[in-house]
Amino acid sequence: MDYVCPLDWRYGSEEMRNIFRVENIVRKYVEVERALVCTLEELGIAEKGCCEKVMKAEVKPEEVYEMERKIGHDIAGLAFLLEEKSGCRFVHYGATSYDIVDTTWALLIRDALKIIKRRVIELLEDLIDKARKYADLVMIGRTHGQHALPITLGFKFANYVYEISRGLEILMYAEKMIVRGKMSGAVGTMAAWEGRGLEVEKRTLEKLGLEPHAISTQVAPRDGFAFLISAIAIIGSQLDRLALEIRELSRPEIGEMYEAFERVGSSAMPHKANPVTSEKVSGLAKMLRGLIIPALENIPLWHERDLTNSSCERILIPHAFLILDEMLISMIKVLKNLAINEKNIKKNLELLRNFTLTEMVMNILIKKGISRRRAHEMLRRITRRYVEGKSLQEALLEDEEISKILTREEIESIRPENYLGNYRELIERAIQYALEVIERARKDLKTLPS
Q1: Residues 265 and 131 in one domain
Q2: Mean pLDDT over the full length of the chain
Q3: Active-site residue identified among 92, 184, 266, 303
């Protein structure tokens, strides 16, 4: 194996890698150049026959980059080769390199986002299924790593349904900003097309299925790229949070869920069942978050542009997509192989013998006429009985002050299943929100060029 970057073989799918392979990038460059020449012929700017000749001319990536080695410019090399092979002198006429590059980025990103959206939808559908399946499975909720109040496992999953559907929504909004063509010449004024630039732009981009930027310099505005990378990093961080949840709950002392893969957990310790796929997701999320800074640094370019964004984006964009692709593939696999230990969930729920329900008791006391401060003090006092191994109910019944206020029936009704609020409605509300986002995403996928 003769690889340097793990993204060349270890992380990401072949489907995603194929989008950013040099062969496909050059193919898209040529597609954009052809669309421009054919438009120029339609408008009578290029001579008749140019379109057909350029459509038949083939340029190989190795030819482009061999030419680049000689002249120091890849797009100029491409234009020279296309002119030479087609015999059409109007190849690249009126265009600047970044008309080709930025429009190609739009095509590549559009294709890459199709893959990402499909994967996010698949992940969300699994989370929705789990939110409904475990809607009534009561478990302990945790804040600050400590036992807090009861929730349900379905409620926990529904929170991830909501968050990741918001991530998908953000990504779709970023797509509208970034998947736009740029066809406006050397500084953006369309000067070379002598007043017909808007029509050149319109027809060229229509052939490619793209809308134009409203205005640009020599390059499309880089804020769209920064927003895209930020959106990708947001989804990556949401996956990281889900992965961290699974990692924490799989600790032996908690043991509520775990990755049920058949694999070696440790080279040294045969008993280990490490959550390595979730850990991989968390590790890759660090890389994604790190890509936001260079994306933001690309926004401030000199005047009508400089070249500092170019080298950065050649690395930045493919890496961002391949990393998120791997994270999504991994998290989909984790969810499909996620084991839920209901016995441990019940055991952990009962671990503090209902002392996690002191808020419930405090609210009952407040409704009985006790001030909030006094009720809080009373409950803090009885929590000391916890160390004696008593249950909350026993401590309440033994407390002289509280036992005079609350009846035995009221004390016995203080159970986790009686303090879940509107959990059912909240789960369904989160699911409905996600289903609406998924429907919009599916519509986008259907309307995009294949």
Answers
A1: yes
A2: 94
A3: 266
How buried is residue 420: exposed, middle or buried, by Cβ count under 10 Å (0-12/13-18/19+)?
A: middle
Helices (H) then strands (E): counts for the chain: 19, 6
Pick out the chain residues at pLDDT < 50. Answer: 266-268
- 282 given a catalytic annotation: no
pLDDT per residue as tens digits for the range 69-111: 999 999 999 999 999 999 999 999 999 999 999 999 999 999 9
Closest CA to 382 of 353, 409, 407, 408: 353
Rg (CA), the chain: 30
Residue 312 lies in a domain: yes
Residue 392 has a CB neighbour count (10 Å cut-off) of: 24
Range of the domain at 39: 1-93
The reply to whether 144 belongs to the active site is yes
Burial of 268 (0-12, 13-18, 19+ CB in 10 A): exposed
Helix (H) or strand (E) holding 151: strand 146-152
Catalytic residue among 13, 73, 86, 144: 144
Write the single-letter amino acid at 325: D
Phi and psi at 134, nearest 5°, equal -105, 25
Residue 102 inside a domain? The answer is no
